[in-house]
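can u pls check wat happens w/ nicotinamide-adenine-dinucleotide
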Amino acid sequence: MKVNGKIIAVTGGGDGIGRQVVLELLRRGARVVAVDIRQDALDATVDLAGAGDRLTTAVVDVTDRDAVAALPGRIEDDHGAVDGVINVAGIIQPFVRLADLDWEAIQRVVDVNLWGTLHVVKAFLPHLQKRPAAHVVTVSSMGGFLPVPGQAVYGATKAAVRLMTEALYAETMGTPVEVSVVFPGAVSTDITSNSGVDVPGGATGGSSRMPTTSPEDAASTILDGMEEGDLHIYVGKDAKLMGVANRVAPRRSIHLIQRQMRKLLG
Ligand SMILES: NC(=O)c1ccc[n+]([C@@H]2O[C@H](COP(=O)([O-])OP(=O)(O)OC[C@H]3O[C@@H](n4cnc5c(N)ncnc54)[C@H](O)[C@@H]3O)[C@@H](O)[C@H]2O)c1
């Protein structure tokens, strides 16, 4: 779906990839509703955007089903309609082996990444289905098809939203609702600290020698893919390469990532 003139909600719009998606949507002529759990982060996005009434914000925790359910109606009241939703909000888990991951941390990452995405998709779908053209985009992860040691449950949630999104694609075929799922590799954001996670060396930047994609480039790739109507959108050379490697040689690709990432586990 071309985004010019459309009204699009972006979860996680207060920081990182989501913030850059908001800014890029505005550049491409959309009206945008940035959604985030953090008011201060949304305020910073608004300051950067300087987009007047083409950008509004909503402080919503995506794990709060009732608050999310009320969101599309609020957007219709403010903007007249809603044409798309981009699920970017997400967190990582503490970098520990599954055996050492406590139930509270497991619950939190499942709540935000899986339940949060489900809440948003279920809330917006009936509204999107009334539109002449509409689009649902969900950000999964390279970690959703390739296991990262120390991110077992994170990866499981990202694999789950991938399958959910692909099923939605199959279910909406022949309707005006388009569907895309995004697989970013490493993107240089503050997801580690935003998730309250402590990582030796930093997961996506800091002293890590892993090449990363900038959030700006990630946002452009996501919106190019959305506007092209791609089902699968790979962000970064790492995600593209490992996507192929994982299909051609699944076990070897797991070994490769394990060797690269094992120091994260100490
Ligand atoms: N950074 C990476 O390397 C990377 C790689 C693959 C996938 N991803 C995925 O991309 C997405 C964005 O990640 P990012 O790196 O930009 O992270 P980020 O921490 O910079 O941004 C995530 C935003 O989501 C918000 N958020 C968190 N929990 C929320 C909740 N319950 N309700 C509403 N908002 C909430 C945060 O406040 C934050 O502003 C995530 O889904 C992440 O899993 C990131």
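The domain at 7-265 is CATH 3.40.50.720 (Rossmann fold).
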